[in-house]
């Protein structure tokens, strides 16, 4: 039964808009007729720490948490976070990685090194790696804070959600604030992922 | 068909309160419960408030129930400890209109100091408990709880866990039902718990529990889902979802009412399956009671007492999968612990306090992050308000020749919650501690909720602002110093003065939380003149996430400032000895 459930994990750093992205994603999946559940934690985790959100959809979803090692689509909002959650990706899974780097305090202060060759290392594990510079695309879209929606645009290439549905849920969410920039960021992210081999 | 929407468990509880006609709701912010009242206050026809602490919140809700309004109290698991005093006697008085207490537990300690299992409170207080497993049930069970509360004249515990509170799932909305009309009726034998009356009420509590147990046998919230007779599972709450994921073929007894338990139903289900498992997070709450009935079950020998369950842990425990610990991330991926935000007023305070080599009793809030590197300036943290009492105790335990200063560090909201009485003790018994109130004008850790000193109510309306300085003076503290946390010299002068007085003293920092202040104009971010930077790395010791670094040709690491992340607080400017960090 749960073979029909698709498991998504959004991972990044507190403050990157992961929770908003997961809200929009759930709206779009629900509007496309899927059962949807998501799980995330609030509170302490949001203070600049590593944050992740699990989203699962299919005909019927029970657990809001992704089963271990069963993530179909891993979206890393920050480059190194892709490596942190790589073990949760299932064999043959897809990783989307934002090449933006946000240095943990330990790295910035020289107590630890930022991992090198992240994208190459992802490619060794994931069947498909889509990498993009969502920060640059968000700036191009006219709103630096639309990195999250840009990545959602990239993710949209891999999801059974019609393009009009995305437009509808984005319009509902951002009607009062930054709609145009978010729509542009979404389109830029989607185009970047398509160029990298997304559907 | 009714409308289907995606709601978090907390949003669903708020919706349920609306549908049930709840008119009064009170709580204190605490992860994972906070969003219930924040959502509920947006519905019409309800009075919802942040109380100073959970005890007051439950007392307000209980009073409202006496007064004839359906009432809701919300709090995190450890908040129920604070509210336990009214809870255990509310079980005696019963209610008039319905009363529900939501206890939001946090298995896995996502944002808590312990992972206590509050199901014990239902048994302790002898009140019924419902446990939803998703958002639909969170809403429906809350509505059901009010009818139950009124039918049996009892408070009802709705016990949730983080994955239910913060998980989102599809909810079909119900109609808003006007609740039965109630008004306050004088009845001292029921509501005034002097010993003579309370003895009588205790008899009724025991009798009520027997009637509830009888009702539990046919309660629609307890459901048998027949399946493979070789594998039987008794479960509840979020664990039910993991069981359905791990063993879709199993026979399941899903308990919606987890106290009191339906003995005959349990025996009937046990007799219908070959091997019977109990799957529950944390303590063997169900297991112990079921075993006490003489029903053999497999339980905590296969499932952890610690943390959360998940589909794998359940599959493994049921013998359906081999244990397979998730591969750890590559060892070269540095940890990313939570940090104080750029511009956080606590940073400058700790930077100074660290120098003074004090013993620091800490408290619950963002400022607890002061324990972590690089600040590392906290020695104890137990529960809300404990810093003050802990500091008094530590001071009283010290040998006369031990001259280390003893400091308590507490936030504004936490001080109001339960720090005031500790300070009264320090003054009353003349214990020379220094209490530092880090007043950032909000309840920051839970996302910025208002409180009695923030000037606004839960509904966002203006409120009288509790005067912390006046309060502290009224308690009897003579040395009260107020400083700007961004001004390191002022903080140091104030702390040095306070620490040398031989009386209780209070230092209040008064910079607002950087997240609250975010929308106002920011000062220009400083920049680092790399030629002047000696690479001493003192600035890294403030642990600011806006600081980056570059390694020069001489191999030395020098600071950079990310202007996008910088708040412009200027603390790094003040710790830089070479003058390389400059503001234009």
Walk me through the structure:
The complex is a heterodimer of chains A (199) and B (584). Chain A has 199 residues and is α/β, with parallel strands linked by helices. Chain A has one domain: Pyruvate-ferredoxin Oxidoreductase, domain 3 (3-Layer(aba) Sandwich), CATH 3.40.920.10. A six-stranded mixed β-sheet of chain A has the order 2-3-1-4-5-6, with helices on both faces. In chain A, strand 4, helix 2 and strand 5 form a beta-alpha-beta unit. In chain A, helix 5 crosses helix 6 and helix 5 crosses helix 8. The longest helix of chain A is centred in the C-terminal third of the chain and has 17 residues. Chain A is globular. Chain B is of the alpha/beta class and 584 residues long. Chain B folds into four domains: 212 residues, Rossmann fold; 96 residues, Rossmann fold (3-Layer(aba) Sandwich), CATH 3.40.50; 174 residues, Thiamin diphosphate (ThDP)-binding fold, Pyr/PP domains (Rossmann fold, 3-Layer(aba) Sandwich); 62 residues, 2-Layer Sandwich (Alpha-Beta Plaits), CATH 3.30.70. Chain B has a seven-stranded mixed β-sheet. The longest helix of chain B is centred in the middle third of the chain and has 22 residues. Chain B starts with a strand and ends with a strand. The model of chain B has no long low-confidence stretch (mean pLDDT 96). At the A-B interface, helix 1, strand 2, helix 2 and helix 3 of A face strand 8, helix 10 and strand 20 of B. Strand 2 of chain A pairs antiparallel with strand 8 of chain B, so a sheet runs across the interface.
